[in-house]
């Protein structure tokens, strides 16, 4: 699974380069999570998960607090959670998750981002079956054996554990993701380098330099859309 971890790192690097836009997306996601239940992360697991992710992207406390306060105040904005699936050049597959208050606008924008960059939108289910929902946790300061022992003692199953770039990367089933985090925190891990529920491709494709440039342009166009929260794909972006 190491190559798939490279894709997650690439996505984080891309988002780090678009800081203000990333913060705005997190603000929306935090607002929706806080509004969907209690605005207290200890009583709202969805909110707690979003805040953990926000921490790995260094989202400022002011933005988090503003979004939660907006939800507490009964904000009138309502968002739909949508998933789009599509294809890029030469067998590349893409999943797009969005939060939108205007479904027609978002569908049109996503379709245009695909179409202008050598891709096309597919029907629901046309791509997702080739991806596995997966929890990914990254941490430093411990080795693979130590992490395995911590998880075994907490009776948490990991799909895979590996050491890469001086970090330990843990892949879990989605329903074991939070239990794995809690076990690691109990063992003294304070910060995670990544804490994502993601969609990992079952197989990856390698594109020519020209096709990869076009594919990355398409992904950038999708991620730049205000309503798009996450973009997953099956392209091996290399080191």
TrEMBL record:
PANTHER family noted in UniProt: TRANSLATIONAL ACTIVATOR OF CYTOCHROME C OXIDASE 1
What the record says about family reads: Belongs to the TACO1 family. YeeN subfamily.
Entry keyword set: Cytoplasm, DNA-binding, Transcription, Transcription regulation
Q: Which Gene3D superfamilies match?
A: 1.10.10.200, 3.30.70.980
Q: GO biological process: what's one of them?
A: regulation of DNA-templated transcription
Q: Please provide, in alphabetical order, the Gene Ontology terms of the cellular component aspect for this entry.
A: cytosol
Q: Where is the TACO1/YebC-like second and third domain?
A: 79-235
In its UniProt entry, the species of origin is given as Priestia filamentosa
Q: What is its main location?
A: cytoplasm
Where it sits in the cell: the answer is:
Cytoplasm
Residue ranges spanning the membrane: these are none
Which parts of the sequence belong to the TACO1/YebC-like N-terminal domain? Answer: 3-74
Q: Which GO terms describe its molecular function?
A: DNA binding
Annotated InterPro entries: Integrase-like_N, TACO1_YebC-like_2nd/3rd_dom, TACO1_YebC_N, Transcrip_reg_TACO1-like, Transcrip_reg_TACO1-like_dom3, Transcrip_reg_TACO1_YeeN, YebC-like
Which protein is depicted? Probable transcriptional regulatory protein BEH_12345
